[in-house]
Every structure is written in structure tokens, then in C-alpha cells.
Amino acid sequence: MIGLPDSITTCLFDLDGVLTGTAALHKQAWKETFDEFLRARDPDGFAEFTDRDYADHVDGRPRADGVREFLSSRGITLPEGEPDDPVDARTVNGVGNRKNELVLRIIDEQGVSPYPGSVRYLEAARDAGLAIGVVTSSANGAKVLDAADLSRFVRARVDGLVIAERGLRGKPAPDSFLAGAQALGATPAQAAVFEDALAGVAAGKAGGFGYVIGVNRADQADQLRARGADVVVDDLAELLEAGDG
Ligand SMILES: O=P(O)(O)OC[C@H]1O[C@@H](O)[C@H](O)[C@@H](O)[C@@H]1O
């Protein structure tokens, strides 16, 4: 009925790009942040931040990991700095704070929409008696869930704030998904992971989860499969249709 193996009791959903369209807003904020940074650092050698950079180094990872990973791919290492660094500080925290300033502004301007197919899927999962958790690297997870009116479905949330507080390793490490399963009293084998990011699918695979659903929002079905997705869909509603057929 909901397109999952019978052994699954628990659904762990990534947020940005799986339940809501906010992955595009994050990408826009990152592009503005990194292009600004790279241009200021080396105007003549400027090479823009691309969709490929986002998918490979930033998407799905906690904010500071995204800063470090992408800059390291360009041979740049910054000092960590402090959490309250100003947005123009040339530190990991400063660059991350600039991105957060931009993404909050973009979210306020554009609003947050849930994917209709994801809302239908959440309703079906809830009605089928499955436990529902959200596991997101974003420190803005609670705000986005509320803005999309999705908090009512969520029994456990592991977000960027929880990850930082508990010192968990970010995706592609499985820690945040393992914490989500534990919070809902499920073993990894009993839990399904729903992810659009390559790092997130890799985290689901690394954690030995019972079923990993790759959600293809960025024309990268083959890469999602290569990272360990058991199935790839363009929209969660496809799982309901598969179940009906
Ligand atoms: O900067 P935030 O809101 O804490 O989010 C961290 C990351 O959260 C993930 O959900 C997004 O895929 C990333 O793009 C984002 O960078």
C-alpha cells in the first residue's frame, strides 16, 4: 500500500528536497555565498559554484561541513572561527553565517511549500501506523516544518541543532539517521530512509537501513543508485501508485 517492504515499521524522511521544495532555496543561498566569497578572494581566477559542486560537496551535509568540503575541493582551508562570527569573516563560521542570513531571507521572501505527493505519502504512512521521523542536517528544520505545516506528522526530529549538540557526525555518516531510528524505538533494519541528497543516500546505506528510497529531484537517478538507493522515484506518490498496482 505504501511501497515499502513489510519489515519496515518506521519512516525517516530527510526534509529539504524530500518533503519541501527548500533544497532549491538552500542551493540558491549557497551559490550566492560562495560566488561572493570566491570573487572577492580571486577576481581574475573566479570559477563559479555549480550545481555539480552543490550535489557533490554541500547538499545534505550540516552547514559547516558544506563550507569545509566545498572550499577544500577548491584547495582552500579557512580557520573555524567562532559561532557568532560576522558574515564577512573569512572563517568557516563566517561563511556559514552569511549563507544562513541569505537562506532565511529567501525563505521569508519565497515561502515554504511541501510537495503535494509527499503530503499524501505522509498521510498514508501515518494511516498505515508507521512511525514518522524527520532527519535533516538543517539547523532550520523546525522552522521549515512549521512553515510547511508538516510538524503534525513528525514524532521525532533530528536536525542540525541536535546534531551539533550531541556531536554527531553529519551525513554521509549514518549517525543522524541512527539517532532518528533510536528515538522511534526502531532498529535500522526496521527503518526506511527517504533522501534526495547523494550524501544522505550514502548515510542510509552506511547505516544498514532496511530500505533506502532515493528521491530524484536533480536529474541524478544513476548517482542515487550508485550511492546505495534500493529504489529511485521522482515523487513519493509513485510509491503509493506502485502499491496500488
Ligand atoms: O544551513 P542549514 O539550514 O543549517 O542547512 C544545512 C544543510 O541542510 C540540508 O538539509 C540541505 O540539503 C543543505 O543544503 C543545507 O546546507
UniProtKB/TrEMBL annotation:
<comment type="similarity">
    <text>Belongs to the HAD-like hydrolase superfamily. CbbY/CbbZ/Gph/YieH family.</text>
</comment>
<dbReference type="GO" id="GO:0016787">
    <property type="term" value="F:hydrolase activity"/>
</dbReference>
<dbReference type="InterPro" id="IPR023198">
    <property type="entry name" value="PGP-like_dom2"/>
</dbReference>
<keyword id="KW-0413">Isomerase</keyword>
<dbReference type="InterPro" id="IPR010976">
    <property type="entry name" value="B-phosphoglucomutase_hydrolase"/>
</dbReference>
<keyword id="KW-0460">Magnesium</keyword>
<dbReference type="InterPro" id="IPR051600">
    <property type="entry name" value="Beta-PGM-like"/>
</dbReference>
<dbReference type="GO" id="GO:0046872">
    <property type="term" value="F:metal ion binding"/>
</dbReference>
<dbReference type="InterPro" id="IPR036412">
    <property type="entry name" value="HAD-like_sf"/>
</dbReference>
<keyword id="KW-0378">Hydrolase</keyword>
<dbReference type="GO" id="GO:0008801">
    <property type="term" value="F:beta-phosphoglucomutase activity"/>
</dbReference>
<keyword id="KW-0479">Metal-binding</keyword>
<keyword id="KW-0119">Carbohydrate metabolism</keyword>
<dbReference type="InterPro" id="IPR006439">
    <property type="entry name" value="HAD-SF_hydro_IA"/>
</dbReference>
<protein>
    <recommendedName>
        <fullName>Beta-phosphoglucomutase</fullName>
        <ecNumber>5.4.2.6</ecNumber>
    </recommendedName>
</protein>
<dbReference type="InterPro" id="IPR023214">
    <property type="entry name" value="HAD_sf"/>
</dbReference>
<dbReference type="Pfam" id="PF00702">
    <property type="entry name" value="Hydrolase"/>
</dbReference>
<keyword id="KW-0597">Phosphoprotein</keyword>
